[in-house]
């Protein structure tokens, strides 16, 4: 594991790099939730699954978290910082590798919003917050619908943030539990590993 610090237009970001044991067929960037960090159990499980599929992983810590703030930055700042991190890592660490964007909750939203501009070949969403709890009218489903590349959504069956719908290029896998996705972590690893292997095979 290697740690990197990256300057962005909105402050210093950090990335924790986990290399696949046998080379790398792609690189997966994973972002954290609004109030959480990169040590979230589902992010760790997804990292394990991705590296097993031969994919390098960068767990990305947004500048507001590096600066010690709990409240997330505005969406535009999150997206700009994320793309700056992706550019840096692509140039210095993951040269010539296809990029997969991903994250949990708020980090999943960032991955979806930036997938096209960042030229991601796929997106992995853990606990995508379709709407605030109890407010289904305030839907974020359009952020998912706008993603033009294959997308995996791993969602808790009883997640109060709602449940995304499947689409022709979007797989939704339901897991026991809520928004934390702390149950059946080995299954999350397997799901991410198998999905990435299938999606990346045509690019190998």
Automatic annotation (TrEMBL):
<feature type="domain" description="KANL3/Tex30 alpha/beta hydrolase-like">
    <location>
        <begin position="25"/>
        <end position="184"/>
    </location>
</feature>
<dbReference type="InterPro" id="IPR029058">
    <property type="entry name" value="AB_hydrolase_fold"/>
</dbReference>
<dbReference type="Pfam" id="PF20408">
    <property type="entry name" value="Abhydrolase_11"/>
</dbReference>
<dbReference type="InterPro" id="IPR046879">
    <property type="entry name" value="KANL3/Tex30_Abhydrolase"/>
</dbReference>
<protein>
    <recommendedName>
        <fullName>KANL3/Tex30 alpha/beta hydrolase-like domain-containing protein</fullName>
    </recommendedName>
</protein>
<dbReference type="InterPro" id="IPR026555">
    <property type="entry name" value="NSL3/Tex30"/>
</dbReference>
């Amino acid at each position: 594991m290697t740690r990197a610090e990256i300057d962005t237009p909105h402050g210093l970001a950090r990335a924790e790099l986990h290399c696949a044991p046998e080379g790398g067929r792609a690189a997966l960037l994973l972002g954290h939730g609004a109030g959480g960090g990169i040590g979230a159990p589902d992010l760790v499980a997804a990292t394990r699954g991705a590296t097993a599929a031969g994919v390098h992983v960068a767990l990305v810590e947004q500048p507001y978290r590096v600066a010690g703030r709990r409240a997330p930055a505005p969406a535009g700042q999150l997206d700009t910082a994320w793309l700056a991190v992706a550019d840096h890592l692509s140039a210095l660490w993951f040269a010539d590798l296809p990029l997969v964007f991903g994250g949990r909750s708020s980090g999943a939203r960032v991955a979806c919003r930036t997938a096209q501009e960042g030229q991601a070949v796929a997106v992995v969403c853990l606990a995508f917050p379709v709407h605030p709890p109890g407010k289904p009218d305030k839907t974020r489903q359009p952020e998912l619908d706008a993603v033009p590349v294959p997308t995996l959504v791993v969602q808790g069956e009883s997640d109060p943030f709602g449940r995304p719908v499947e689409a022709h290029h979007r797989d939704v896998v339901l897991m026991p539990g809520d928004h934390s996705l702390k149950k059946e972590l080995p299954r999350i690893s397997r799901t991410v590993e198998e999905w990435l292997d299938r999606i990346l095979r045509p690019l190998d």
